[in-house]
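**User:** My hope is that you can spare some time for a protein that puzzles me. As I understand it, each token names a local backbone shape. I would be glad if you read both lines and explained how they fit together. The protein I mean follows directly.
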Amino acid sequence: MPSYTTRKTKTGTVVDVRFRIWGEETFDIPNLYKSVRKPNRKEMKSEMKIWELKEFLRFQETVDDVLWKTFFMCLFYSGRRVGEAVALSDADVYRVNGVYCLDINKNLSRKTMRTDDKFVISAPKTATSNRAVALPQVMNAQIDQYLAYKTAHEIPGKSAGFLRRRRAEEERSEVEIPRLRSE
């Protein structure tokens, strides 16, 4: 019997190909691996592009609306996804020891089978997506300003499901900041 080796892979120990060939030739055991089609390799994902702080501050200078300024700052400083940030309600923003925190426990999505709703607020896909995020001190004054603006203009506390990415594109193009994603 010829010698064979084993090697470790991510899925476990795999007997070397030479052993399978020996078994096929010696005992007429068909090698079923020959008929298995190898999966297509997906393209390697490119590195995620993110704005530097100076690019974000340049972008932020062009935003004059309190609602949108707070929204974009929340996205940048907390690292939340757009759907998570849009689904936030007043009950999800609270203050602990002088620091604002966000309770991320829902997501806004357009992917729904219902024909009557364009958007649906649902629970996150995994349990680890439920989390609390502390915002940096930079956000305290902005959130206070936003809450005062909301009270003065009698904006309801429900999720703002009408927010769109289009506004970000308009603001970004004004100051010639590079796109983060190609669509």
